[in-house]
Amino acid sequence: MLAPLQTGAARFSSYLLSRARKVLGSHLFSPCGVPEFCSISTRKLAAHGFGASMAAMVSFPPQRYHYFLVLDFEATCDKPQIHPQEIIEFPILKLNGRTMEIESTFHMYVQPVVHPQLTPFCTELTGIIQAMVDGQPSLEQVLERVHEWMAKEGLLDPNVKSIFVTCGDWDLKVMLPGQCQYLGLPVADYFKQWINLKKAYSFAMGCWPKNGLLDMNKGLSLQHIGRPHSGIGQSLCKSPWQLDDCKNIANIMKTLAYRGFIFKQTSKPF
C-alpha cells in the first residue's frame, strides 16, 4: 500500500499546487513600476485556506541551479578613468536556489599594484579607504582563496549546479578577465558563465532598469538598504557587514523567484 499512498499524496500535492496558482493568478507578476507586495499573494492564499508551507511551494518554483553566487566587484577608479582598473573588493554571497536565502559569504579586500594609492574619487564612490587595501592579498592570492572557499562549500562538486549573478556584464565580461589578462593569470571556467540580473529583471518585468539596482528595487517596491557601490564590507560611514549591493541583488532575486521567475544563464559562451 505504500506506493499507492505515495502516488496519491503526490497527486494531491500537485492538485493543491495547481489550485493555489489559480488563486494567485496575475498576482505573481505585475507591470513594471506598479507596486506589488509579496504579502498580497500570501493573503490571497490564506483567504482560500492555504497555509504558509503551501505559500512557500508556490512562491519558489524549482530553479535550474542549486546555488546562485552573487558577486559585485569594486575597483580602482578616477575621473578621467585610470587604466588598468584593479579589483579592490571581492565579495560573493552563496544563495540557496531552493529557499533563496543566503547560506555563506566570501569577502576579501584586494591590494592594487599598478595604482596602489586610491584616489579621493574612488574612496568617495566606494567608501573604501586606503587602510582597507594596504597589506591585503593580491588578486592572484584572492582567486586562490575563492577557489578554496568554493571547494569547502561543495560548489566544485560536478553534481552541484551553481552560477554567478552580477548586476550587469561588466564584472565577469570586462573587469576580471581584463585584469587577469594584464597580470597573466588564468580565468577559472566557473567565472565564464553568469546571470546578468538586469537582463533577468527585464525578462520578468518587461522593462530595462536604466539605473540598475535603484530601478529594480523601485519596480519591485523594495527599499534599497546600505551604501551603493559597496560589495559587502565596511565603508566610511556605515557599520561593517551592512546590507549592501550584493544583498540588494539577493533580495531582488528572492522577490522575482517568489513571483515565479526561473533564472537562466544570460552570458554567451566564451
Would you kindly provide a written description of the structure presented here, covering whatever features stand out?
The chain has 10 helices and 6 strands; from the N terminus they run αααββββαααβαβααα. The protein has 270 residues and is of the alpha/beta class. Helix 1 packs across helix 3 (52-59).
Q: What is the overall shape?
A: globular
Low-confidence stretches: 1-10, 12-17, 33-42, 50-57, 230-243
Largest sheet: 6 strands, mixed
Please give the alpha-carbon distance between the first and last residues.
53 Å
Mean pLDDT: 82
Count of DSSP-assigned helices: 10
Order of helices and strands: HHHEEEEHHHEHEHHH
Number of strands: 6
Helix/sheet category: alpha/beta
Helix content: 40-55%
- Over all CA atoms, what is the radius of gyration? 21 Å
Strand content: 5-15%
Please write out the topology.
Layout: H1 2-24, H2 38-47, H3 52-59, E1 67-71, E2 74-75, E3 87-96, E4 102-109, H4 120-126, H5 130-133, H6 139-152, E5 162-166, H7 170-183, E6 194-196, H8 197-205, H9 213-219, H10 245-258
Parallel strand pairs: 1-5, 5-6
Antiparallel strand pairs: 1-3, 2-3, 3-4
Helix pairs in contact: 1-3
